[in-house]
Amino acid sequence: MSIAISEIFGPTIQGEGALIGVPTLFVRTGGCDFRCSWCDTLYAVEPRFKADWAPMSAEAIMAEVKQLSGGQPLLVTLSGGNPALQPLTELLEQGHAEGYTFAMETQGSKVQDWFALLDHLTLSPKPPSSGMAFNRSRFEASLAAAGEQTRVSLKLVIADEADYQWARAVAADYPQLPLTLQPCNPSPATPEQPDLETDTASLNARLRWLVDKVTADRWFNARVLPQLHVLIWNNERGV
Ligand SMILES: C[S@@+](CC[C@H](N)C(=O)[O-])C[C@H]1O[C@@H](n2cnc3c(N)ncnc32)[C@H](O)[C@@H]1O
Ligand SMILES: Nc1nc2[nH]cc(C(=O)O)c2c(=O)[nH]1
Ligand code: SF4
Ligand SMILES: [Mg+2]
After folding, report:
1. Atom 2 of ligand 2 has which residue's CA nearest to it?
2. Residue of the nearest CA to atom 3 in ligand 1?
3. pLDDT tens across 16-67, in order?
4. I need a labelling partner for 13 at 20 to 30 A (CA). Which of 73, 102, 176, 233 fits?
5. Where is the Radical SAM core domain positioned along the sequence (predicted)?
């Protein structure tokens, strides 16, 4: 079964969430069942880019992973688009056999049995500002599909007050999940403006706003984190 691949890049560092700063390779799949208003990865989302998503076998993906990692096993982060749309069982099995571990980024809208093979699962349901609905039953099915050994965390992007209040309510329902809050980048690079400079001052102002709210509300089990790679490498692709 082939897997639609947008890009494979790294080693870099995980720029977001519970594993921030951890060296990792990225395997980005093509295609998404969502279209968030502020998505920073439209080249792996919008159907008009489908011709750019190469159908690859698990063997071919692992060959590229081994080449990029110099044959030294490390964390491989599956992202997209929505990687949960792809048949990833073989890739996970082959990668584990070679000593690699796997994290996956998904919004939790599509569940697969192979979630049970993941070492890390970051669930990032979408807030109101995204324009997408939160399907709680699909989210909880994603949670239930994780394996005994899978470290699951919740990552919520916050663009405004309504998102913040939504996040408080969602997080309160899943107190068992480590939680990171991430300010929304309101002006990510787009296919029309691929070289758009990151407005770092505005991003940091949003981060400050979020920190101020979390501390004022004494929301002490929320970690507030930026998108580190965006601060380091601008809105560049493949970093
Ligand atoms: C590009 S998505 C791919 C994986 C999956 N579709 C998902 O949304 O979790 C990876 C992460 O980037 C976040 N993200 C996307 N666009 C963003 C933006 N403009 N600002 C902040 N985070 C963003 C998503 O919310 C998600 O947590
Ligand atoms: N360095 C880096 N960290 C990331 N964490 C989540 C990413 C994503 O696009 O899914 C991402 C990304 O694109 N780059
Ligand atoms: S679910 Fe993820 S990849 Fe899909 S549109 Fe939203 S942010 Fe982009
Ligand atoms: Mg990204």
Report:
1. 15
2. 80
3. 999 999 999 999 999 999 999 999 999 999 999 999 999 999 999 999 999 9
4. 176
5. 19-235
